[in-house]
Amino acid sequence: MSVTHDARVSVRTATGVQRPGLRAWPGIDNPAAWIVAIILLIMPLIANGFFLIEIFATTLILGTIALSLMFLAGYGGMVSLMQLTIAGFAAYMVAVFGTSDNANISLGWPWWLAVPMALALATAFGTLGGALAVRTEGIYTIMITLAIGAAFYYFTNQNWAIFNGHTGINNVGTPRFWGINWRADIPFYYIVLGVAALCYFAVEYISRAPFGLALQGVRDNPRRMAALGFNVNAHRVAAYAFASFVAALAGVLQVWNYRQISPGSVSVGACIDILIIAIVGGITRPVGPYIGALIFVLLRTFALDFLVKIGLDGNRFRLLIGLGFLAIVFWSSDGVIGLWQRWRQRATPTRPIGRSGQRSGQGSGHG
Amino acid sequence: MTRFVERHPAWALIVIIAIALALWLIFAVWPPGLEEAIGRKRVFLNAVFNGITLGGLYFLVASGFTLIFGLMRNVNLAHGSLYLFGGYVGYAISASTGSWILSFIIAFILTALVGILLQVIVFRRMEGQDLRQTMVTIGLSIVFADLMLWACGGDFYQIQTPSWLIGPVELPLITALKSSGEPVYLRYPLVRLVIFAASVVIGIAMWLALNRTRIGMIIRAGVDDRDILAATGVRIQIVFVLVFALGAGLAGIAGVVGGTFQSLSPGEDIRFLLASLVVVIVGGMGSIPGAALGALIIGLAEQLGSVYIPTYAIVVTFLIMVLVLALRPQGLLARR
Questions:
Q1: Averaged confidence pLDDT in chain B
Q2: Residue in B75, B313, B318 nearest the CB of A142
């Protein structure tokens, strides 16, 4: 996947200051993007059920949550740690409005009613949280969104009436219609792939639509944008609303994937995992979160075996993640994409330094 | 103070009425009707005292956090890890030597050393890059948490309270009257009172050091404008290291206190990180009096909440934060 985007960027740098809004979809003229797309489409032929769901579907779900963070952080300059909380909220709402084992909590609505309800509520929740967070800037945003996420985690742990305390809600119903069980491996993979692609292209589209361009202007210089007549806070809250919707979609998929939801899935550690995924992948382009998610899921799944094989304690998976994250933050401000891009630039030294050079301090927009 | 009253007479009146009501609730003998409505006075007083002493603990954690932020604009999200590290060190020292006081000293020194290492090795390299520093502290907190889990396991530890502090003490506060008319006084654990007194002493000492000494003057100047301060010839890097050591050391001390009050286990680091975040958001980033006020409010809200509305205690804390953000985004006592 990284190939497609790297190529796109090199096109941009080679043609100089082309307006991004005037260009066609990224990667449409790029064979590598088509290859990745085709591989993703025919994945069920290649991979067995374990790989299909545990690796690829999980990657796409986590990647979509991280994509919503990437949208806020990369285009809006707002690092929100509550994206997983919003996804978790949507997941809880699906469980509460839909069907599950906890008959006294779940209302038993059909999925086509429960899911829009969950999406609407989670979007409203995220927008409210965003409206709160935009009252502050930069690093304060991290702290406030982290506090919101942690408060939600403790709340779900303590509340038994709606969230069923620390046991959570089990055996959440999944959709079945047209004679197909949509939670079976292959249909579910295609649902996840479809939603992820939808979100990915929506983010791509918005990033070059007038709203996205204004948002990037707000990121780079809020004062000047305000002087130009843009309502800075409204743009930020709208960005939160869109990101919340993306996160909520992923949250619905997540609860269908695991068929249960409990406070453990919205813990503070899990919120930070989303940040790690986005940062490791790179938050300047929408493809970054998916690369980060793939690395994270592969590490999470195979680190144990790998560590045991080289004679270390298998439980040190988080240490590995933490050290890898530190290394990325230390050496590449643009995640894995940035590393890849720099490596390519070194391979072809004649090319002028492009975006990665200008955006090397990715914190610059967060003043 | 007088300026506040002049500028916000309505708020000042509300605050005065609230304080008077609180004092009456604490000192007066409750009439029977009130006892029926909200329960025994002993429960209420215990919750208030637990809240105040918990506030003292929160203040110890949050003051270091806010001090580091105020001077270096560094949101140290590894602060909770320093707290837990200090607690484990304190446990190890007190278990091996049996000395409670010594565990404070060693925990302070060791966490301060960790703080110095962090500042010298990590944060000095990325000065001015707020977001990147914050990311690094997140990474560090993950690494520290896993290293501590590796070293200490997932068990609960509690630091032994020294024998001269065990047991309750009778306070001159009447909780109820016996049928014979004889007053019943509140009994409260001595160790909590001592720790609270110690945190008050530390708070006042910090305030004095910041406002009455030369180094405090330098730090305050650095909070206002560190570039100009560096331009006047102050060796600001040394000040940074000192402040980071002090902030980290305070977190270490708080760890020992928390280990005595409550217990130490993986996950406590996140809990106290969250507590200090909320405390400084409520009180105002970078302000020591703000941290004290925020700690008191949050401690009281948590304890009173857990007594009177048990399932929603955390929501009360959160609501306070939301309210402060909505009305005064910079925090209650921030100057900005």
A1: 82
A2: B75
Ordered domains of chain A (ranges, CATH): 2-365 (1.10.3470)
Query: What pTM was estimated for this model as a whole?
Result: 0.79
Cβ atoms within 10 Å of A256's Cβ, excluding its own: 24
CATH code at B43-327: 1.10.3470
Q: Do B129 and A143 touch (CB under 8 A)?
A: no
Which stretches in chain A have pLDDT values below 50?
Answer: 1-23, 351-367
**A268-272, B89-93, B330-334 — which one is most confidently predicted on average?**
B89-93
The Cα B107–Cα B91 span in angstroms is 9
Question: What residue ranges do the domains of chain B occupy?
Answer: 43-327
Residue whose entry in the numeric block shows the structure tokens 């506040």 = B4
How far is residue B286 from each of residues A188, A193, A362, B198, measured CA to CA in Å? 49, 46, 25, 22
Contact A154 B314 (CB under 8 A): yes
Minimal CA separation from B144 to chain A, in Å: 8
* Angle, CA B129 vertex, CA B127 and CA B135 arms, to 5°: 110
Among all residues of chain B, which has the CA nearest to that of A320? Answer: B143
pLDDT digits (tens, 9 = 90+) for B284-310: 877 888 889 999 999 988 888 888 877
CB contact under 8 A, A79 and B140: no
**DSSP assignment string, B277-318:** HHHHHHH-TT-HHHHHHHHHHHHHHHHHHHHHSGGGHHHHHH
Q: Does B142 touch chain A (CB under 8 A)?
A: yes
Q: Say if the ipTM goes beyond 0.85.
A: no
In chain B, pLDDT over 90 holds for what percent of residues?
A: 8
